[in-house]
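Troubleshooting: if your tokenizer reports a length mismatch, compare your output against this known-good record of 110 residues.
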Amino acid sequence: MCIRDRLQSAIEDAMVDTSYTIAGESARYSLKYKVLEFDGGSRIARIATMGFSDSAKAKLRVKAALFDGRDMVGAWEVDSWVKGGLMGGTEEKLFERAAKEITGHLKGNF
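Known-good structure output:
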């Protein structure tokens, strides 16, 4: 699965915690995003160094914008990363964190 699809899936899962619903072409708002940077790092190195090695860190940087028709209502940049942990921090967790921050902006938490 490509990076954009993985992020899309994580956002859809995170939308369950919002009052927003995923709709088709007739939706009042549309969320657009672009992956600016993705580095999966090395999970093996994250496990081996217990998260102390910055070079093993997985990073994801996304530019997101909310549109009301053709007008932009808001825009923000999301930086997500995983550095370690018992299982070395998974890429799945990386996308979940980015999606949680994006939906947090939609809810007005950031």
